[in-house]
Specification:
By secondary structure, this protein is of the alpha/beta class. It contains eleven helices and five strands. The protein has two domains: 210 residues, Rossmann fold, CATH 3.40.50.300; 67 residues, no CATH class. A five-stranded parallel β-sheet has the order 2-3-1-4-5, with helices on both faces. It starts with 19 loop residues before the first strand and ends in a 24-residue tail after the last helix.
Amino acid sequence: MRKTYGKPLPGMKLADLSGKLIVLEGTDGAGRTTQINLLKPWLEEQGHAVLDTGMTRSPLAGEGIRRAKEGNNLGRVTQSLFYATDFVDRLENEIVPALRAGFVVLTDRYIYSLMARAIVRGMDTAWIRSIYGMALVPDAVFYLRLGLDALIPRVIFSRGFDYWESGMDVFPGHDMYENFRTYQAALLAEFDRLSAEFNFEIVDASKDAEAVFSELQGKVGRVLGGDSRKEYVAKKYERPFEIVGDLWRETNVSELEMLLRSAAAHVAIYGYADAGMNGNGNGNGSGHRVAQAK
């Protein structure tokens, strides 16, 4: 039975969320985005419909967060509430509908990053955790752990130091390099505590991207081991015309689109067969199409 960390969102029926929620966590520079970009097409090749999401992608709050951070004067309480708004909007309008449609949801960071960042900035731990009580407990959290000595060269030779990633708002100073070390060390320590509490699966992110991807393939495959696309689609579409009518009445358009995309992904991999169609192929016979593996 799917669970939340506190009280679910109004109207959220946990029993209906048949998809899988898989989280990739870790500090900046750990390679999360690279791995999600590898995992998504791989999962789709296996016949899974996939949604990928991440921080600041909410249409409601994402752009506002980016603009607010440009001025380097965003307060820690406002920042925490901004990120919480972004998360809840994506949870309600992206993650939950996708899980209801049977998708695999890959998320680049989750509430753990949000909590770690806030706690390092001195926010009250009980309060910051309470505002994420509606969050769903993931099916798996893979913590791409990268030590400080390996992290610094990656950042220097990629995008360079950033005001917020260097914790300049937390540890005021003129030396961004030293601030980066101090802030990231504190963040790593908090992630390690969260990892022990929430049972993250630790992945050594210091290895090359291909080796990390190979390890994640095995771990994700085990999470999805009991999830048969053939059985799922056959169940969902054994009465396609009646079900589409029911969905139209009971779900919003985005949820219906996700469910139909899930069926399309299955058909692209496994194909389908016509059953009960009349001889002229116009679909007016007494039967209907049934999703069926080749």
